[in-house]
Amino acid sequence: MTTLQTIHDVPVMMCALEGEPIGSERDVLDLIGDAGYQGAQWVVIPAGRLDESFFRLRTRVAGDIIQKFVNYRLGVVVLGDISRHTDASSALQDFVVECNRGRQTWFLDDLDALRERLEN
After folding, report:
1. Is 3 helix (H, G, I), strand (E, B) or coil?
2. What are the distances in angstroms from CA 91 to CA 24, 57, 66, 88?
3. Predicted confidence (pLDDT) per residue in 62-111, tens digit
4. Cα angle 82-46-58, degrees, rounded to a multiple of 5
5. How far apart are CA 48 and CA 18, in angstroms?
6. What angle do CA 44, 68, 73 make, to 5 degrees?
7. Nearest alpha carbon to residue 82 among 116, 115, 104, 52
8. Cα 38 to chain center, whole Å?
9. Does the pLDDT of residue 2 top 90, yes or no?
10. C-alpha to C-alpha distance for 117 and 120, rounded to whole angstroms
11. Rounded distance, CA 81 to CA 39, Å?
């Protein structure tokens, strides 16, 4: 289940924590279609919904999924604590830092951090 929220005049589609794991490009196509239909500019995915392979960069799952969002001109937020993954991988740590510098993919701890980012 997804809900549409407006945060600082930005339409944001919020994915529920419950649901099928997201672990492939195919899995995000429905989210992207739903977001487009609802007029969302950002899609927020709880970190707990992402398959473990997303956090292992060598699998290329993260890159493939993020590329789908880029292709459809949608921002994507991975929301929640992913420190157990970043603590285990300096490459993932670097990837998260680089993503958070941009305006398309963010890894954020909570909704307050998202509100702050969208305010700017």
Report:
1. strand
2. 20, 8, 16, 9
3. 999 999 999 999 999 999 999 999 999 999 999 999 999 999 999 999 99
4. 50
5. 9
6. 70
7. 52
8. 17
9. no
10. 6
11. 27
Q: Which helix (H) or strand (E) holds 38?
A: helix 25-38
Tell me whether residue 41 is exposed, middle or buried, using C-beta atoms within 10 angstroms of its C-beta: 0 to 12, 13 to 18, 19 or more: middle
The answer to whether 99 and 105 are in contact (CB under 8 A) is: yes
Does pTM surpass 0.85?
Answer: yes
DSSP codes, 39-101: T-SEEEEEGGGB-GGGG-GGG-HHHHHHHHHHHTT-EEEEES--HHHHHH-HHHHHHHHHHHH
**9 C-beta neighbours (distance < 10 Å), count:** 8
3-state secondary structure of 117: helix
The one-letter code for the residue type at 30 is D
